[in-house]
């Protein structure tokens, strides 16, 4: 029995202290996913907390089967969609100060995020799940409810678009 299955079994037996362990185990992954899909760190924290609140509220319905990770991502997807319908609080400034360690990584991530946000919504979510959250293609299919081949096709198409955009930017940079 996996650690996750063991925790779920104990939770179902009303050992709710194990629920805290389960949340702690998945919080970082869900938070990072929400960070990709929201406009600020605070909104991402709110989305992650809302995801777990909804999980706790409905966990006894057993609609997740034994695939708790996919179930949590499905909740997070819906929470982020709901949050995206709200008007944005504020936008990121064009130039961020380079005062913290890891700034270059953050800059590359921001560039990648900019490229991803130019993709159609259906492709954005798949790219973030696959590469931002390091999920398998099968898990992406499970979370989105799409057939495996559709996920593969959309990811391939998204990566081609990103590659073309990177090449286009490279040509523009050389001409300056």
What does this structure look like?
The chain has 176 residues and is mostly helical. It folds into 2 domains: 1-87, Rna Polymerase Sigma Factor, Chain: A, CATH 1.10.1740.10; 103-176, Winged helix-like DNA-binding domain superfamily/Winged helix DNA-binding domain (Arc Repressor Mutant, subunit A, Orthogonal Bundle). The chain contains 8 helices and no strands. It has helices at residues 3-12, 17-37, 41-58, 68-84, 103-117, 121-132, 137-144, 148-175. α2 packs across α6 (121-132), α3 (41-58) packs across α4 and α7 (137-144) crosses α8 (148-175).
Task: Tell the overall outline.
Answer: elongated
Fourth-level CATH superfamily of the largest domain: RNA polymerase sigma factor, region 2, helix turn helix motif
The low-confidence runs, each spanning 5 or more residues with pLDDT under 50, are none
Largest sheet: none
How many structural domains in the coordinates? Answer: 2
The CATH architecture of the largest domain: Orthogonal Bundle
* Alpha-beta classification: mainly alpha
Helix content percent band: over 70%
CATH topology of the largest domain: Rna Polymerase Sigma Factor, Chain: A
Fraction in beta strands: under 5%
Q: If you average the pLDDT, what whole number results?
A: 79
Radius of gyration: 18 Å
Number of strands: 0
Terminal residue distance: 59 Å
Give the class-level CATH name of the largest domain. Answer: Mainly Alpha
Order of helices and strands: HHHHHHHH
The number of helical elements comes to: 8
């Amino acid at each position: 029995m996996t650690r996750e299955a063991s925790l779920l079994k104990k939770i179902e037996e009303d050992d709710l202290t194990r629920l805290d362990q389960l949340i702690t185990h998945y919080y970082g992954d869900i938070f990072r996913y929400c960070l990709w899909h929201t406009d600020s760190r605070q909104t991402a924290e709110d989305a992650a907390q809302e995801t777990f609140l909804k999980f706790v509220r409905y966990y006894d319905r057993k609609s997740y089967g034994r695939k708790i990770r996919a179930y949590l991502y499905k909740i997070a997807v819906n929470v982020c969609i709901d949050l995206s319908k709200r008007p944005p609080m504020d936008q990121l400034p064009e130039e961020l100060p380079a005062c913290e360690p890891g700034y270059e990584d953050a800059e590359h991530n921001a560039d990648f995020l900019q490229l991803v946000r130019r993709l159609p919504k259906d492709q954005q979510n798949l790219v973030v799940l696959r590469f931002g959250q390091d999920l398998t293609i099968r898990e992406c299919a499970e979370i989105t409810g799409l057939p495996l081949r559709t996920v593969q096709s959309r990811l391939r198409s998204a990566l081609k678009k990103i590659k073309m955009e990177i090449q286009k930017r490279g040509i523009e940079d050389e001409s300056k």
